[in-house]
Amino acid sequence: MTLVLGYTLATAWLALCAWSIGYTVWLVVYRLWFHPIAKFPGSFWARTTFWYEFYYEWIKPGKYYARIKEMHEQYGPIIRVTPDEIHISDPLFYHELFVPFNVRRTNAYTRYAQGTGFEDIFAIIHTHEGHKVIRDPVEKLYGKIATHEPLVLGCTKNFRARLDQERDTGKLINLSHACLSLAIDVATTVTFQAPSNYLEEPTFNENLFNIQKSGLMHVPLFAHLPTPLRMIVVPAIQVLASRIPELKEWDEKTRRQTFRTELQEPTMKLQGRASIWKRANFASRIGQLIQQNGIFHVSHTIETIITQLAMDKSQLQKLQDELAQFWAEKPDKVTSWYALRELPYLTACIHEGLRLGAGSMKRSPREYPDDEIHYQGWVIPKGTPFSMTTYYMHMDPTVFPNPDTFNPDRWLGADPNGLMHKYLLPFGKGSRACAGQNIAWMQMYFAISQVYQPGGPAIELFESDESDIRLAHGYVFPQPRLDSPGVRIYVHDP
Ligand SMILES: *[C@@H]1O[C@H](CO)[C@@H](O)[C@H](O)[C@H]1NC(C)=O
């Protein structure tokens, strides 16, 4: 009996091994020779397995953007970066691929949302049409400049007031958390009926942001779990996460919020499309998604500008002089975003901050369901995920000499062939570009002009430098070196 059982088990085991080996061989053969994009160049590992990306995203970590750049140097401007996805490195072609809604139907690539915890919402909005349901009203709402100007200005005034409160208290401030608190206040103020007042929190929500950051770093792991495992692990993590007091509070805060009227109906519409067991809290999760997408780039840009100016007194002086003159000559215009946009040095600082601080290192894959892409003799079939990386453009030394240097002067005067503006894509472009761009611009103009206006606080860095802000890890939201304790500042009387 035992003998028979042992024999059966051994056979089953052998069969399983044979099946796995056979399946792997078949998959490799298929991906190398029969896959619709089999002919595109690329490294052997990138073409045959998704674990290659996993290795660079999770083990290295957050370094696939750098590896992709190397692969382009080796294989040319169009390469296969995963078994399913094509990556193109050709800055001007970006403007042909990332186009508005009415030009071409553009879907997002569902795999890209894996591991983020927002898969359920993404499953609905990854299509051109599903995305449009929420996108149009969001754009319309955020486009109401006159409505939002005083609200955003109010948040940046709170930011300035919080810094003033800390003057000469001897307390260290984590600048990153201060800027994130500002950004989250702005995002909630323009999206919901009531502001969140994150800036009032004494530690600038230190614990919440640290937890969110470690979550961010685990996205590549969850993204690469095989589907059945992911379907168990991700909800389990969500349940566990909901017990962490800071996350629970964040969640409840969003749940208590009511959307601005413009967003109520479209959210209900999307909720109607969600599967039955995902409908609970759907609206608040959209609110969270908007917050998550709306805060990192803009807060890191503001943090970058403040840090750089604290390190370079001559740049700081130029900005303060420009603002002092404006404050003296046009005091009635200092609350107008349109008027502030005319200030050349302020604008140059913001452009430079966006170039260095809001680079998306992770590629942003799209699919055209109806169209092929023709590029240098290659034909990318319909429905194939393709991507580009805007960070390479922000760091292109032919357009931005010494790209690592924060140099507002480069924006003053010369942009002879208009390339600098074509290469600066902090918010992406086309139908899926950042919907809150106006709000972000307004926030940056108001925040920087409020902090550096006459009488503004003096900011002193504490054991922090450029390495604490320079982006180095290409997570969904890019991060500086992981062992950085963050930019810490003291605030003084001027
Ligand atoms: C400051 O904020 C950054 C970004 O969240 C974080 O990585 C860092 O650990 C924080 N530093 C301190 C001292 O809390």
Helices, strands, pairings?
Elements (H helix, E strand, L loop, with lengths): L1 H33 L9 H5 L2 H9 L4 H12 L2 E5 L2 E4 L2 H7 L9 E2 L10 H7 L2 H15 L2 H21 L7 E2 H17 L14 H19 L2 H15 L3 H12 L4 H13 L8 H30 L1 H17 L7 H4 L3 H14 L8 E2 L5 E3 L2 E3 L5 E2 L2 H5 L24 H5 L13 H16 L5 E5 L8 E3 L5 E2 L7 E5 L2
Parallel strand pairs: 2-8
Antiparallel strand pairs: 1-2, 3-5, 4-12, 6-7, 9-12, 10-11
Helix pairs in contact: 3-10, 7-13, 8-9, 8-20, 9-14, 12-14, 14-17, 14-20
Main features:
Cytochrome P450, monooxygenase activity, 494 residues, binds 2-acetamido-2-deoxy-beta-D-glucopyranose, oxidoreductase activity, acting on paired donors, with incorporation or reduction of molecular oxygen, three-stranded antiparallel β-sheet, three-stranded mixed β-sheet, Cytochrome_P450_monoxygenase, mainly alpha, single chain, 20 helices, Cytochrome p450, Cyt_P450_E_grp-IV
Could you characterize what this model shows?
The chain has 494 residues and is mainly α. The chain has one domain (35-492): Cytochrome P450 (Cytochrome p450). The chain contains 20 helices and twelve strands. Strands 1-2-8 form a three-stranded mixed β-sheet. Strands 4-12-9 form a three-stranded antiparallel β-sheet. The chain has a two-stranded antiparallel sheet with strand order 3-5. The protein is globular, with a radius of gyration of 24 Å. The mean pLDDT is 93. Residues 174, 176-177, 206, 209-210, 213, 485-486 line the site of 2-acetamido-2-deoxy-beta-D-glucopyranose.
